[in-house]
Amino acid sequence: MPARDRINELRKRIRYHEDRYYLHADPEISDVEFDALMRELQALEAANPDLLTADSPTQRVGGAVAEGFATVEHRAPMLSLDNAYTEDELRAFDERVRKGLGIPGPVTYVAELKIDGLSIALTYVDGVFVRGATRGDGERGEDVTHNVRTIRAIPLKLEVTPSGEIEVRGEVFLPRAAFARINREREESGESLFANPRNAAAGTMRNLDPRQVAKRRLGAWTYQVVGVAELETHADTLEALTHWGLPVESHWTRLNGPDELVGWCARWQDTRHDLDFETDGVVIKVDDLALRNRLGATSKFPRWAIAYKFPAEQQTTTLKGITVNVGRTGAVTPVAVLEPVLLAGSTIANATLHNADEVARKDIRIGDRVLIEKGGDVIPKVVKVVDPERPGRGEPWQMPSECPSCGAQLVRPDGEVVWRCENSACPTQLRRRIEHFASRNAMNIDGLGASIVDQLIEQDLVHDVADLYTLTAPQLEQLVVTPREAKSDRTRPRKLGKVGTNLVAEIDRSRKNDLWRLIHGLGLRHVGERAATLLARGFKQLEALAAADANALQRVPEVGPVVAESVAEWFAEPHNRALVDRLRELGVRTEASPSELRAAPGDGPLSGKTFVLTGTLPSMTREAATEAIERLGGKVSGSVSRKTSYVVVGDEPGSKAEKAKSLGVETLDEAAFLRLIMPS
User: Fold this and answer.
1) Which 3 state secondary structure label does DSSP give 26?
2) pLDDT tens for each residue of 212-264
3) 12, 99, 114, 609: which is the annotated catalytic residue?
4) What is the CATH number of domain 3-59?
């Protein structure tokens, strides 16, 4: 193909994928595939400079401005970064820097983790937040001030107040746990899944309803200041940002010369999986700001910085089959059964295929060689078929017409991409509902595991969650449990015995749980822990919540139309109202506890306390710990400062634990933390 034709084809494809990413928050290819297209175009234009035009994607900084937001002019261009993918390219960058500066010896750099998020510019006047804007095209961005105000990591007033107007730049991101939760909720509700945390953050910040943004639990890190002349180095900048009370990711370091750069990047390639946020590389910047000014920038990239991108964590394997999974709301989704393969430190045998439309669009067939990756290093997914043109492929896959669990006819509601089983008595749906009801973040019934739930349903002892409260100790002591996967003699079928007695006591204890736990446990679509907490505070009694219409529900702060419609529709179903009545008759608390009513937002026993979490807590997820702190009036921060009240230290903590000790901040182990949030 002539160079001119290939260049035009590449430009057209790149513009299309830029629109999918920046405007629609719905990318169709991976970052690696996009970068490959861009690099091919750059190489062709370099070889054919007479074909280079001003409107080429290689000459533009970023995405276009989305409709629906006011336009903001940046104080200085927000340039993107050139990329390096190998050790040789890192060394070549260092060589260009030294040549540009005329320095024969090593240059001092600052290396920071590259956050997989959305660039943001924050304007403060005399220490008070006044505006937030996306990067947009680098010169102009979208005014997302109202959305930024919902991000708790970003202070509305700085602890130390620099005078005049400054612009702070950073990244808005979704923590791993929040990303996984959001995609689970979207899959249950029949919405398309976000491809990665950056895609999710971008989609969130372009939401016109700040209340919906608040529910996503975005985080933020900052790393640059525009408008403060007295700062001399990048290290000074990061320390100043921390001193002012802004969030700064703590794993930055100063490095001298290319050998140290290469070593630091290699170290984080694997270590990054221990972080609670996604990072896809390392950003390397010349530390001395005066030297940066000497180096300057091209029309797109600063010459003093580069982004080292970690190799994509992808593998190729064989698709052995496609099964369908039935969720607790009846959503039926396809799952790829794979020849097991090692990916990102774990063996992957199954991967999500999202929905039937996605399978058809990618033309995925049984027997294909497929490329898989972890979406945001969290959810294994099939990216594409490796050789779609090979002869002798199997037939296109079709969604089954009947539920694999109960045989009911599957339906696809108008406007949804997910097929559903609408049989409320479907055994698999019932199993999922009970498991959710008993989960730690809902009614917290310790000991009610999957194997026991299987037997309760198979032996006709439980038909809904209310039946759990009719179980007796003799029934459960005699219950014979068959583990789902028998791997040794110790997992052979057995009677529960004393375990059954303890489980009845756990179920009885759960009757006194806070109302928000019951609301969450009922499994209403779109209602997570945060929404359940707000609804419990807003209506105080389950009966009042059940009687509310969508308009009344939306009067609760942060509850939008999607949640309101979902709640109203759920309680409009006669069998759901009957379930609620039975729970109340069986002694389950259906009114808010005094502690729930006291703990309004910003109020409660932990009011005024700031927590930082580091490491893994065996008894709860980071998201659950955050919910508990905020429900009691406390605040969770991403970085440690002298204003931090407590640092909660779990297993394998990061550098935040050491920083707490150096600043004299009190640390809590898991036991002390649990005593604080669940006093006897």
Assistant:
1) coil
2) 777 788 889 999 998 787 789 999 999 999 999 899 998 999 999 999 999 99
3) 114
4) 1.10.287.610
